[in-house]
Structures are given as C-alpha cells and as structure tokens.
Amino acid sequence: MLRARETVAIDKDASRATSRIVGDALVFSRGLWVCFDMTVTRFGNSVYVTVPCFEGTQVPTPLSTFYSAFCSELNKTPRRPPGVSYNVSAVKQTRSEPAGIKEIAKALGISIGTVDRALHARQGVSPKTRAKVLKMAEKLDYKPNVAARSLKLNRRVRIAVHLPQQIQSFFDPLRAGVRAAAEATLGATVDLDFRTYPRLGEGDVELMEADVGRHFDGIILTPGNPSAIGASLQRLAEQGRAVVCVASDAPRSSRLACISVDAFVSGGMAAELLGMRLPNGGAVVPITGDLSTLDHADKLRGFAASLATEAPQLSLLPTIESHERPKDAYQATLDLLARKPRPAGIYISTANSIPVLQALEQKRLLGVIQVITTDLFPELIRHIESRKVLATIYQRPFTQGKVAFETLLRFLVEGVRPPPSTKLAPHIVLRSNLSLFLNHVSGPDETVDAR
Q: What is the rounded end-to-end Cα distance, in angstroms, of the chain?
C-alpha cells in the first residue's frame, strides 16, 4: 500500500494548500488517493495541479476541474502511468498501521526474501534491485520493528558510552538523549554502560584500550584526537565491535558512522551574525577547545570561510585554544583583552564559554565586545536576555545522543548499515526566541573564581 511521504488534505475549494510535490499521491478531503506524479500549487485562493502522466497534459489546471475526473478515474480499473514501477491497484486508501516487508514486496512484485536481503544489505541482491527496494521503503514510510527483531534473535545488546566529564552543559544532555532512546526501545534488552574520562583528548584512548577486551556489542564515543584513537578503533572493528562517533568524528578510521551537528555551518552562522552586527569592520577572534578535534577545526573553517564571503569588513585574529580547561579559557581571554587592537567580536565555539564571559565582565567589556557562544545552559540565559551575548549556536546535544543510539542499535539488531555521516542542523538562539529553547537547558557548568 503506497503512502506518500508528505501528503496534504486538499478540498476543491481549499485556500491554504502550500506549494509542494506530494510524493506520488494526492489526498482529497474524501480521503481518496490519486496515484500519479503531480505538483500541487496555490496561486492566491485557487489551487492548481500539474499532472504529467494524466490525460497526457502537463498544463496546470484548476483543481476543481480535475476533482470529479479524478474521483471517476478511481472507480475504474487502475492503469499504470508511464514510468511508474509499483503496484497501482494496491493504492486507493491509507493504511492505519505502518507498512512492512510484505507491502514493499507486493508493491514491487518481488519476493519477501529479496526485500529482506535488500533492506539488510545482505548478499544476493543486485544494486539496481536494492535501490528500488530502498526507494519504495521510503515511499511507504517503512520502519523496522527493532524490538520484535531483538526478541526474535533472543539476544542481549551491550553498549558502552564513552564521554568526557567536561563540558557538562553539553555532554550531560547528550547522555540523557542516549538514555531516552534506550528506554523507548520497548521489548529489546539493552544494557548501557556509561564510562567517563577527564576531557576530550585526555584519557579517551586509555578507556578504549581497556574496553577492547570487554564484551560490548557496540560503543558510542566522542573522539578527541582522531589520529590518536585510530589504532584502538581498528582493534575494536577487528573484534566485531561497532563504533558510532557522536559530536565529533574520526572519518578515516574504522568507525561505523558519525552523528553530529554540522560544525562547518555552525562556524559560518557565527561569522555571518557578527558581520551583520559589525558593519563598520573590526577584528574578531575564535576561542575553541582543541583544533586536533575535528568538530572544533570544522567550526573554525566554516567561520573563516563565511567571514571572507559574508563579512569581508572583518579581520580574523589567531584562534585561541583553551583545551576545554575553564581556567585556561579565563586567563587566555584576559591576555587577549590586554592586547591592542582590542577585538570587536568573539566567537566561542564550544560550551566552555562561562570563563570567557567572566573575564569580559571583569574588564567591563561584556556587551561592548560582541559575543557569539555555543549551546545553552542556566548561566548563559541572563546574558542573552540582557543582550550582552548576541546569540548562541545550539548544537542539540540531546538529539545527537538519541540519534547515535538509534543508529547503533538498528545496525546491531537489524544489520542495517547507516550512512557514514549524519549531520544535524544547528539552531540559532537569540533573545527573541530564547523561550522556545528553555526546556533544553541543562544543569550548571564549570566556572572559575575571577578573583
């Protein structure tokens, strides 16, 4: 049974239909499906459709003209339009439950076994057939029953989660996302083991080496220095351990996949915001954690690239690395403010922003120098509300953790190999939309004594 990925219920007199392609189906107010590739467009209060393979016309025609013809056509024996490769006779009304492997097989006219092998990347299926199956699975909104599969296999899945103790304002919500996804996996038996090390690039390799001999099915981790953990990732892969990176990546390693916010875009947005706020020019400086961490390096690349194209009036000062140590960030900011010329803007590309804000506040420059921060936590709220922080780039740590767990579990239980990299869209938090994000605020983070 075909289900459009996004459908719009449209009456012949509708005035609020938006312009979009409705997959391969159009839903009328009567709930009837027309299984053709069509475009629905609104001009003023009139709704139009373009139907490339209906009656041989491609001319937009008022929906009211086609409505009765469509309903009449549905009462006839369905005809397969040119280029459509699925079973049209199975598509006349929506399903109340998600489609399964049987529905995919019926729509394509192939065996259930072929569909199963294609969905789970097993041998015996040609690339062309696999592509057709995956496309149809997407059309039908197919979702595998992970819990049922786990019960069928009668196995217990053990997953280790390696994350640093710092920075808590980012990694605590990420842990919460992993837990929430695990709790939502009804029927599956999943053992989570949360393991910590001091900070990115410090203690992570030792922890991985300690887990090489342990019986984990998979590991979720944030790589600090990709080159330093490459050998450990290779040993885990040789033992059949699946590793999903989260928040940063080790792209040339043996990891299974990476789930992260788009760091390059995050840096680019920060530069564009500063460019709009500082139209008369000036110098800006990024303050990051460690440029050996891919996430931090990608943010700097995006920041520099966007400055060149979106804010050419701004000059870029050398990047400051705090190595995610609050005291180092605080002292480095004081040293920066003592130099001439003083920067007009600062982009703090990690959640280690409070020490930087403390230094600016001590020098009475908070609100004078334009600041873009990263993520959201209680200490930051008052600075955004008072406009002393222009904006913060929210990295959605809870969602990152949730998606990382779901990706790893689906591979372990279903055998479905994920895309090598999944990048989430970062969010810009301003004073005007701050209230929409307050439910995402985590607990207190590290601060330093400014005295």
A: 68
Q: Where do you find CATH 3.40.50.2300 in the chain?
A: 156-260+398-425, 263-395+429-440
8 Å CB contact between 377 and 444: yes
- Pair of tokens at residue 117: 């092998």
The pLDDT score that the predictor gives to residue 75 is 46
Q: 373, 393 in Cβ contact below 8 A? A: yes
Q: Does CATH place domain 263-395+429-440 in 3.40.640.10?
A: no
SS3 216: coil
Amino acid at 381: I
Q: How confident is the model at residue 154 (pLDDT cuts 50, 70, 90)?
A: low
Q: Where in the chain is the domain with CATH 1.10.260.40?
A: 97-143
Cα–Cα nearest to 354, from 399, 384, 316: 384
pLDDT tens-digit profile of 289-339? 999 899 999 999 999 999 999 999 999 999 999 988 899 999 999 999 999
Amino acid at 425: A
Fold of 156-260+398-425: Rossmann fold (3.40.50)
d(CA 354, CA 104): 52
**Omega of the bond leading into 164 within 30 degrees of 0 (cis):** no
Rounded CA-CA distance 371/369 in Å is 6
Mean pLDDT of the chain: 78
97-143 sits in which CATH class?
mainly alpha
**Quick one: which H or E segment has residue 235?**
helix 226-238
